[in-house]
Specification:
The protein is an alpha/beta fold. It has helices at about 75-80, 95-105, 135-145, 160, 165-175, 195, 225-235, 250-260, 280-290, 295-300, 305-310, and strands spanning about 10-15, 20-30, 35-40, 50, 55-60, 60-65, 85-90, 110-115, 150-155, 180-185, 205, 235-240, 330-340, 345-360, 365. Bound molecules: zinc ion (ZN).
């Protein structure tokens, strides 16, 4: 008997890979931790192991660009949702980055970090009320020390966090980031959004885009601000960041999407408490956007190839193309009546829900 050609074959699922415009039933062959082939029917005898995906959706492993991991929430918990790669969005700053790097290093999935420009990260909420907490030199030293893990800079600009010096905080975050992206948390800021957007580079990521006022992305007539559309045209990215409080309400999403303003990426802003309150998990948030009218392939792109495009070290991810790391998520797309909530607990009913059933990380399977 000859050895099997492939370590694992995922059989009979509906492949949905927006990076290759694939939406068809096919098998995925994995060997040596990489995707090796996508074919209509791979012989079972070619596989050392088989994963039956008939009736299920098979996507690239999900990428969540905005999570908070640590003592309250482990990366392994998110892996069971199909999240094979994530970015921690500012949990830690220069003073407490070492502990977060240990979490990233120990994780079974891929964790990278946006360093909070404030020295303490979110450990002391209101971390930028004293602007001197945004210590450019300390942040630069932390980045130099953890180059492998820190892939950008996070800054929270709400008035409750940054008072009336949101613009100065953002300038400092930009200074620290250099060529790397800044992820900025908007919503209820002191400064109007256009003033904030002016300071951004192409590739910077605005999170919590559907935040309610003050200073939402809408003008007084309820239309998306021209400055927001212009920023997108010049390469600024717009991310959901669902979270629990003050980040997304249905009326804001409705108004923005009526103007065609859909997100580039869908992220959860997951925390420990969010697992049972308003956030739940990334597949649930993707399902919300299906309810809101986003086509399935476009919603999946927001958590795969579009998310990968925002982080340089993720550029080979978010795809099922042969040669790519074998990160694969398998979902049921359930039909029924499902209740979804926004950040003020307004309920809406959707009729499709993605539920993770298995995940493959670097070629190794984890069945849910
Ligand atoms: Zn966050």
């Amino acid at each position: 008997m000859r050895a099997a050609r492939y370590d694992l074959v995922i059989k009979g699922g509906r492949l949905l890979d927006p990076s290759s415009r694939v939406d068809r039933v096919a098998d995925v062959a994995i060997e040596g931790g990489r995707i090796r082939a996508i074919q209509p029917n791979i012989a079972s005898t070619d596989a050392a192991d088989l994963l039956d995906a008939r009736g299920k959706i098979v996507t690239p492993g999900l990428i969540d660009l905005h999570v908070h991991v640590g003592a309250d929430l482990s990366p392994a918990t998110l892996l069971r949702d199909g999240v094979t790669s994530m970015v921690d969005g500012g949990s830690a700053g220069a003073d407490n980055i070492d502990a977060l790097v240990r979490v990233a290093r120990a994780a079974p999935n891929r964790v990278r970090i946006f360093l909070n420009v404030a020295r303490t990260g979110v450990a002391t909420p209101g971390e930028l009320l004293n602007i001197e907490a945004a210590d450019v030199d300390a942040a630069r030293r932390a980045m130099a020390q953890h180059r492998e893990w820190i892939v950008g800079v996070k800054v929270r600009l709400s008035a409750g966090v940054a008072g009336d010096h949101d613009l100065e905080a953002l300038r400092r975050a930009r200074q620290v980031a250099g060529p790397l992206p800044v992820m900025l948390h908007v919503g209820q800021t002191h400064s109007p959004l256009p003033k904030i957007l002016e300071l951004l580079n192409p590739g910077d990521i605005v999170t919590h885009i559907y935040s309610p006022p003050p200073n939402s992305l809408l003008d007084e007539a309820g239309h998306v601000l021209a400055a927001v559309q212009t920023a997108r045209q010049r390469g600024v990215r717009f991310d959901v960041g669902n979270g629990r409080n003050g980040h997304i309400t249905w009326p804001i999403v409705d108004a923005a999407t009526r103007d065609g303003f859909w997100p580039d990426t869908i992220s959860s802003d997951s925390t420990g408490p969010g697992r049972t309150f308003r956030v739940f998990d990334l597949p649930t948030i993707v399902s919300k956007f299906l309810m809101l009218g986003m086509p399935l392939d476009r919603a999946i792109a927001c958590v795969t190839n579009h998310a990968a495009a925002n982080v340089t070290v993720f550029k080979d991810l978010g795809t099922l193309r042969p040669g790519a790391p074998a990160d694969v998520a398998i979902f049921e797309l359930r039909d029924g009546d499902f209740e979804f909530v926004d950040n003020v607990d307004a309920k809406r009913t959707g009729h499709r829900k993605l539920v993770a059933s298995a995940v493959v990380m670097n070629g190794a399977r984890l069945d849910g």
